[in-house]
Structures are given as C-alpha cells and as structure tokens.
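Support reply, case 0932

Customer input (verbatim):
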Amino acid sequence: MTFVAEDSKKYRELNQEYQEVLKIIGQVLMLAIVVLAFSSIVAFVFSEEGAANPPHTPKADLQETITQALIP
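Our regenerated output:
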C-alpha cells in the first residue's frame, strides 16, 4: 500500500510542477498578445498617408542674379 501512496505523491509533485510551468507559458503568451496588439495599433496609426507627408507643404525656390549695373 505504501508503494501506491508514494507513486501518487510523485505524480502530485510532477503535476504541480507542470501547473507552474503552464502558468508561466500562459503569462508569456498573454504578454505576446498584448505586444502584438499594441504594435499593430501603432503601425496603423502612423501609417496614414497624410501623417508623414502633409499635402500642403510650403515651398519656396529662390534665385539670385547679379548684374554689372549693381556693382559700382
């Protein structure tokens, strides 16, 4: 009878170790889901067409010429 009790005690310890490992795996998976969700939202927000390059950007082309009449 003690043999069966020792086996069940080993199985309980082993099961407890597996439960602890499963908790850690679950936490890692939840963290991965949160990171992927956050990164996809950020990518969506910053990938809009007008956010990086606004359509009405002021621009000026300047050109200067020097003629002989201005030099004394």
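We compared this against your earlier run and they match. Two observations from our side: The helical segments are 2-46, 49-52. The radius of gyration is 35 Å. Please reopen the case if you see a mismatch on your end.
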